Amino acid sequence: MSETTWFIAAIVIYMAVMLAIGYWSYTKTDKYDDYVLAGRGLNPFVAAMSAGASDMSGWLLMGLPGALFVTGLSELWIAVGLLLGAWANWKWVAPRLRSYSEVSNNSITMPSFFENRLRDRSRALRVISALIIIFFFTFYVSSGMVAGGRYFEATFGGEYINGLLIVAAVTVAYTFIGGFLAVSYTDAVQGMIMFASLIVVPIMALIALDNPSDIWTWAASNDYGPYTDGVGNPDYFNMIAGVSVAAIIGNLAWGLGYFGQPHILVRFMALRSPAEAKQGRWIGIGWMFLCIVGATFTALIGTVFFSQNPDIAVTDRFAFETIFLDMGRILFHPLLAGLVLTAVLAAIMSTMSSQLLVVSSSLIEDLYKIVAKQLPSENVLINLSRTAVVAVAVIGGVLAVNPSDSILGLVGFAWAGFGSAFGPLVLASMYWKRLNAPGAIAGMVTGAVVVFAWGNLGGSDIIYEMVPGFIAAAVVMVAVTLLTSPPKDEVTDEFDQAVRLSKVFKEDEDVDIETAAAQVKGSGV
Fold it and tell me: Per-residue pLDDT for 406 more than 70?
């Protein structure tokens, strides 16, 4: 069989497994809450793996190796920031959010949580946060489709549009039928595929080199990739040289984005109990660290791998975002290569499915339900959510037809938008009793507007838009909160209940959360 036939066989196997998980999830999904949040029954392994896989997306296997390949190890500041941010998110937000969302009227989306947490009777907080989610996730979904199209270009030499459509169709299919349970379990499987591939590919590429030790010197003094003037990239191995303080701060600031990512936060809300956030943290951070190491060595080894043999070349000669794909295709038997290369599909599809479901939830739970004169039945709500999944996918696909930015650029814009709009608000909601609805709305809108304006007016050339966006949102949120009336007693009483509930699980990890929540509410604490 031809190489292409083997690749197709591998991908068909992978797609079939994803659809099978989707069908299994369909048989387990009877209620609307199940479709949106899987009945809050995720174990810590699935929660951690699905959060990691939906977080990392195509940029881990394509965007990040490409950036490291072209620029050098200075791009690792992003990885450092992400590791710190992910750890902090699991440590300080996950257990408290799981407790608080249970106490606060059993909130199942972030917009509904914000509204319930602050008792915003105007509905403005819920509507605006839902609109922000829909706006920025449209770009995020688009980045996944761009990655899918480039995947098929690099793997099959096929048409970009065909690849985009195939990836989108299968992702929409299992998200459509299985909801949150399908998304979570497919993400967990996809996370394991990503992990295995990021370990195997660089190891095999290293073995294939004539002199493996060249990886520590080659890029700094020899031609490779975009460097053709005979001197290579002298600063490749220096994380500081040639990098401004603003660039380092901007890259580290990627970690701040974790506090505001709805598709990650919803995993915390779906945990079986707050106590399981600790186990989830170690699983998730360990997986993430090893994956980043694999992506880093993919780029590092690639500088030599594609230079020692003039007969092979990187398919993407602009952003060099296909080096992982090209390595896998060259190193392995076509069937094994096809299975390895499904890691990229796994990364792309895990993120897209999570984003599609979050946008669908916001459209139905946070917009439709508050304007509907009569609440529809469970089946109608589920079908409306499925329709929303398809609608968002279509819009994202239209934007992806002629991408105007790299994968990392598209992801970076959406990441900054969520991090700035929701990050300060999430932290304040968890730990600041004085927070009120006017302050929350003002800070959220400020963060989103600053990111949009900064990115579109060229400010990102100075510093990553996350930095001004996050700072501006935090300052405005605090200022407006202190200048307006304090929250009512029912808001502060519920805050105390949430704190008490989180402490209960520190004392007894095995307690049933619904029972504990009822006891905490009943105690009036």
Answer: no
Residue 267 φ/ψ, nearest 5 degrees: -65, -35
Count of C-beta atoms within a 10 Å radius of residue 199: 15
What does DSSP assign to residue 62?
Answer: I
Q: Mapping DSSP to helix (H, G, I), strand (E, B) and coil, where does residue 50 land?
A: helix
For residue 437, give both structure tokens: 């609805």
DSSP element (H, E) containing 197:
helix 160-208
Q: Which range has the worst mean pLDDT, 37-41, 86-90, 176-180?
A: 37-41
Under 8 Å CB-to-CB from 363, ≥6 apart: which residues? 130, 134, 385, 388, 391, 392
Tokens of 328: 């896998």
**Can you give the residue range of the structural domain that contains 85?**
3-24+60-403
Q: Residues 420, 451: contact at Cβ < 8 Å? A: yes
53 near 188, Cβ under 8 Å?
A: yes
Mean pLDDT across the chain, nearest whole number? 85
Does residue 407 carry a pLDDT above 60?
Answer: no
Does residue 445 sit within a domain?
no
User: Please, are residues 497 and 504 in contact by the beta-carbon 8 Å criterion?
Assistant: no
Q: How far is CA 39 from CA 107, 111, 180, 386, in A?
A: 12, 18, 9, 18
Q: Tell me the pLDDT tens digit for each residue of 180-208.
A: 888 888 888 888 888 998 999 999 999 99
Token code pair at residue 304: 């030599």
Give the number of domains in the chain.
Answer: 1
With a cut of 80, say whether residue 488 has pLDDT above it.
Answer: yes
Question: Does any domain span residue 362?
Answer: yes
Tokens 């969520």 belong to: 418
User: Shortest CA distance to 316 belongs to which of 406, 410, 199, 220?
Assistant: 406
Residue 133 lies in a domain: yes
Q: Are 317 and 134 in contact (CB under 8 A)?
A: no
CATH number at residue 169: 1.20.1730.10
Q: What angle do CA 13, 19, 23 make, to 5 degrees?
A: 140
- Integer Cα distance of 158 and 292 in angstroms: 29
Q: Is the per-residue pLDDT at 33 higher than 80?
A: no
Are the C-beta atoms of 429 and 114 separated by less than 8 Å? yes
Report how far apart, in Å, the C-alpha atoms of 387 and of each of 68, 175, 384, 511 are. Answer: 39, 11, 5, 38
pTM: 0.86
Given a cut of 80, whether residue 259 has pLDDT beyond it is yes
How far apart (Å, rounded) are the C-alpha atoms in residues 89 and 418?
A: 14
Closest-CA residue to 349 (of 485, 216, 193):
193
Beta bridge partners of 227: 224
Residue range 203-215, pLDDT digits in tens? 999 999 989 999 9
Angstrom distance (rounded) from CA 223 to CA 218? 8
Tokens for 225, please give them. 């990739």
Q: Is the pLDDT of residue 113 over 80?
A: yes
Q: Please indicate, yes or no, if residue 367 is contained in any of the structural domains.
A: yes
What percentage of residues in the chain have a pLDDT greater than 70? 96
